[in-house]
Specification:
Blueprint lengths: L3 H8 L7 E3 L8 H10 L5 E3 L8 H10 L5 E3 L8 H10 L5 E3 L8 H10 L5 E3 L8 H10 L5 E3 L8 H10 L5 E3 L12
Length: about 190
């Protein structure tokens, strides 16, 4: 029953939002959310999973305005592109928790750009992104020393070799999801 009009009334004069969870809000659109991000540079948690009416302008504004961002949930946001993820990586160095599940346009290069700049990553979901390969896992092994949770289920292009590197170098890893990864076998696990 919460509507776009209600959201506008509530958020219109807010200047200190830190946690914003709009997951599955089908009514949220970029013109409605952009001013909120602009006026709230202290956002540390943003969940816009399943919001289909947004554009990459949201992520570019978030990257330039919210440097202390720690959690970003974008699951099922098929509109997310590689440039936006690179921009987040270049600007949001405090990022600890990132869910990019089913963000199909994310590439190895953009994921690597993000990983090499965000050394505090503890939780990362790259599930069902077909462009992700072992190159991304190598970058994680080299840069994400505090990684505790990794979901690469449905990433058909990763192999045992990439999983072995994660196991070897990510010593704090406690959860690994590799379901539906046809080239990951019991050998690496």
């Amino acid at each position: 029953r919460f509507t776009a009009h209600s959201f506008h009334i509530i958020s219109n004069d807010c200047k200190n939002i830190r946690i914003l969870n709009l997951s599955s809000c089908k009514w949220i659109c970029s013109p409605l959310l952009l001013p909120v991000i602009q006026c709230n540079p202290n956002i540390v948690v943003l969940d816009i999973s399943g919001c289909y009416e947004l554009t990459n302008d949201i992520l570019h504004k978030l990257a330039s305005n919210c440097k202390s961002l720690k959690t970003l949930k974008l699951q099922d946001c098929h509109w997310v592109n590689a440039n936006a993820i690179t921009d987040i990586g270049l600007n949001c160095h405090q990022l600890e928790d990132l869910n990019l599940g089913s963000c199909w346009e994310v590439s190895d290069d953009s994921a690597i750009d993000l990983i090499t700049n965000c050394h505090n990553l503890k939780q990362l979901s790259l599930s069902k992104i077909y462009g992700i390969t072992d190159r991304t896992l190598f970058a994680l092994a080299s840069n994400a020393k505090h990684l505790e949770y990794l979901d690469v289920s449905g990433c058909w292009r990763i192999t045992d070799y990439g999983i072995r590197k994660i196991g070897e170098y990510c010593s704090e890893l406690s959860h690994l999801k590799v379901g539906d990864c046809r080239d990951v076998t019991d050998e690496s696990l």
